[in-house]
Amino acid sequence: MQKSGELCCYVGYLLLLTFGLYNRGIVKKAFIFEVLVCAVAICSFASAKQLVLVADKDSTTTNIKSADLANIFTAHTRTWQDGKTIKIVMRDPSSEDAQLVLRRILNMTTEQARSFIQAHPGVIVVADSDDAILHFVSNNRGAIGVIDLYSLTKDVNVVKIDGKLPLEPGYLLKGN
Questions:
Q1: Residues 42, 124 within the same domain
Q2: pLDDT by residue (tens digit) across 15-26?
Q3: CA atoms within 13 A on the CB side of 61
Q4: What's the pLDDT tens digit per position in 57-85?
């Protein structure tokens, strides 16, 4: 989120510079409108939360259907096709990232998710950061987690959801 805030700040500086150039008669009013439209588009894109489903490097799963993902997160499916036990790690249900997962995959409230996690110890591990999720997933065979796209490292594999990667139109874990 800090990166998107910085980007919007730079766009704001660009707008101020453009208005200054307009006041000096260097640019025309139409140019200011074009810059303003671009600025709004850039800031709205930058502030949209983009999450990604990741798996350990040894995972053979490259694509998962959203219905299957819901079954995994609700403990109806506990093993991968190759027999490995599925280990789920995610942020605290009250976090912004978890809220998107709860809305898009589980259709649960924060309180329902907390109750589910407490009632199913060992099914979902709660982590306090994307780095902690990455560490858990990269060190546990069969593990999956949801992180911010901009936290992605080479230590994990991205798993497509319904055949789509992050940034593709219709990707399930695109926020806003």
A1: no
A2: 656 656 656 666
A3: 25
A4: 999 999 999 999 999 999 999 999 989 99
Q: What is the pTM of this model?
A: 0.72
Both tokens of residue 148? 């911010």
Q: 172 near 165, Cβ under 8 Å?
A: no
Q: How far is Cα 60 from Cα 81, in angstroms, rounded to an integer?
A: 9
Q: The sheet that has 124-127: what strands, in order across it?
A: 124-127, 87-91, 143-148, 51-56, 156-158
Quick check: is 166 in a domain? no
User: What is the dihedral angle through the alpha carbons of 35, 40, 42, 43, rounded to the nearest 10 degrees?
Assistant: 130
Query: Beta-carbon neighbour count of residue 34 at 10 Å?
Result: 12
66-105: b or e for each residue (b if 16 or more CB lie within 10 Å)?
Answer: eeebeebbbeeeeebeeebebbbbbbebebebbbbbbebb
Contact (CB, 8 A) for 64 and 161: yes
10 part of a folded domain? yes
